[in-house]
Amino acid sequence: MTRTEVLVIGAGPAGIAAATAAAENGRQVIVLDDNLNAGGQIWRGATVEKAGSSHQGNAAKRRAMTRLQQSGAQVLGGRCVFSVEASGTLQTLQETGSDSLVEQFQFDQLILATGARERFLPFPGWTLAGVFGAGGLQALVKGGYPVAGKRVIVAGTGPLLLAVAAHLAQDGAAVSSVLEQATLAQLAPFATSLWANPAKLVQGARYRGKLWKTPYRTGSWIIEAIAGSDGRKLGAVRVTNGTRTWEEPCDLLACGYHLVPNTEIAALLGCTFRGAFVQVDDAQRTSLPNVFCAGEPTGIAGLEAAMVQGEIAGLSCAGLIGTSLQKRAVVERAFARRMEKAFSLRPELRSLPRADTIVCRCEDVAFGSLHGRTSWTDAKLQTRCGMGPCQGRTCGPAVEYLLGWRPVSVRQPLFPVPLQAFCSHDERVEINQLKEKV
Amino acid sequence: MRETFPVTINGATRQIARGTTVAVAMLLAEQPCRLSVSGEPRGALCGMGICFECRAVVNGIPHRRTCQILCEQDMTVETNR
Amino acid sequence: MKPFDILIVGAGIVGSAVARECALIGWRVGVIEGGTPAGGATAAGMGHVVVMDDSPAQLALTAFSRSLWQRDSGKLPKSVEYETCGTIWVAADDEEMVEVHARREVYEEAGVETRVLTAAALANKEPNLRRGLAGGLLVPGDGVVYPPAAAAFYLAEARRLGAEFFQARAMSASQGQVLLSDGVSLVADRIVLAVGTECDLLPSLPIQKRKGHLVITDRYPGFLHHQLVELGYLKSAHKIADDSVAFNIQPRQTGQLLLGSSRQYGNEGPEAEPEMLRRMIDRAKQYMPGLENLSVLRVWTGFRAATFDKLPLIGPAAGLSEDRSLWLAAGFEGLGITNAPGAARLLVDAMLGRKSAIDAEPYLPARLMEPARLAHA
After folding, report:
1. Contact between chains at C297 and A391 (C-beta distance less than 8 A)
2. Which of A7, A97, B69, C66 is the most exposed place for a label (fewest CB within 10 A)?
3. Would you tell me how many other CB atoms lie within 10 Å of the CB of residue C225?
């Protein structure tokens, strides 16, 4: 059993800021993340060294990581949280090629900085090889997938699309278009609002700079991914802008519909929610006195908001109040509201899936089989939609948008975990699953 | 030079650069990570351990999320059927 | 509104089976459900279609019901996942092997086919069981279904034959009248309470909640072939007083493994309890060590509707209620899935005054009149 005063879940910008602030103010801090390295999705580093890579190290990330290291907070990567009790214990699973390790942690205060994931919406062909999430393809490229010379289309919605397109272009991909479902009119107030947030303006300009040859088509969306001549891999996509429909050939499609917050741990703990988000006060405290939350789970607001909120949460754990930070947090929340409006999903996306389009990829539940079902529970019972290993994390937000069903309760284990580790008495369980094999 | 080592994917051995995730190794080998319930070939979608589409058999253990695991020397990976 | 011949409160597997049985004889049927159909004990249960011999009456009803499942098997849609995988009652030691032979006689006498498995035969049938077990009793006719889909099939059949479905909570049910939460009032000659563990409509129902835990794994096709239950199951699982666990594992058609079981009285909270799970998993590992490496997807709990004598309540509510319009199909404890078709048949036979295939008397609610009166004195 590892004991710590403050336990931070998530080593993205919010978690890093939280851990740093708490540790710099004398608290003993451990940060857990299910990814191998700290940085979260936005600061995900490449795991493969590349000769002549043109990626500039991100200055903000470098600064944050250096400060984190100096603060004394301990970061433990590759640990997936599968059970947690508000009374102050938590269990993680760490998997390598051949072993699993289960560890228990005890904490006085918990900071949830669990970030967000991409929202996926089903469309015909989205299960073909060559179709990825937008952030998904970016993550794979950072994990060593070469895209140089590949024709890539980036599509969906949200500010992430440009970041992904820029990253892919820098890696040598031929990004042939970026398709944003939101209309220009919808985006304009958001773009203008960037003036009120200068840091974001700089970020936005940088994305566009790397992509000066790539068309950024607003009000356009993918209606189908079409297999190439071999029938198995992506060959083209069918695109529409509502009046005209056309085909664009491509090797890879990176498609994601903005972000949904990772709030499973907060839900399991019983934190109060406001809509889809965890409710927090000015000190980032949730409805539970020893649980704080920062970043995307409190509202999709991006990098700066995550860092500000993280710092507030960290200071709160150390018994301090960050008054000036709270003012910045208010500005960021306003930004979040504008962003939400700008990238709100168009209703036409609801009519993309055909009866045979897979909605739940774990259980291969087709859209048509949800017809006549009355609720998420009913659909789960009768079709197994959302009952597979991802536990509805992928199809849940899609079904919520398509059919308006709110997801139901979250249960332990939060992720699939070996039976041996589940409910074990032992403080540390090392599982060599190869031992039994011949 | 980047360091590489052998990894066996569905019976064929290939050199993989250190730091490559298993999900990417499957893409490089053009092998699906798993066959879905209805038999469709599938591979990584989210790339961040959420969607479970990249599950494969790693060193004989089924249902491993390959986007969260780095390749190791002499690892064997098979499509999860 | 024209009166119904029958109103059925509860669209779990039992209520749905009763609805189909009544629709088949041409009655005007109404089914009332406040929650998700099949969302209660039906959804929480294992779906083991099993002949149980803990009493002659239980043996008769389960054997009769199983024969109805077998008769229907050709009509069941694929989603019901009916499979005659058989049950193996696993004997850990020689003492339990003696029990295997005794049991075989009881089953054979009731016309239920069985086969005694030696240690070697058991290992051959289920290689993932640990070595050193004494053997087992195979009941080849037992099977597995996916209960929510089975209930949905019964309800769909009933509706196809004209039954009406009301998605509303029954606020009261008496003297042939059911008042719904949406203000609608329905009238019928008979009302059947098929309410699982929810007894608010008739508080004198002598039913207690008995909590159970289940664990389901990821897909491991080929790991398990039969439903396996430890032979000590009746000993360990059917004691009324204490919390107990027993090794009970089921192969789903999906390749998933469904692992049970636990029994508890007195805890009516739905939360999964780590201590019970730990005991359950430890028990299972004693029989199947390889389970420990399999991945757990989900854990849930449910409540069995238990009666004092572990037999269901099938028939008129006479004795428990003065109301002559009330009938019961309740209190199935852990055998609601198995017994749903048999119970539906017995109930309709009783309503029509038809002779039943088995003696219905042991299940008549009136038998519990005395304990019920005592409990409410």
Report:
1. yes
2. A97
3. 14
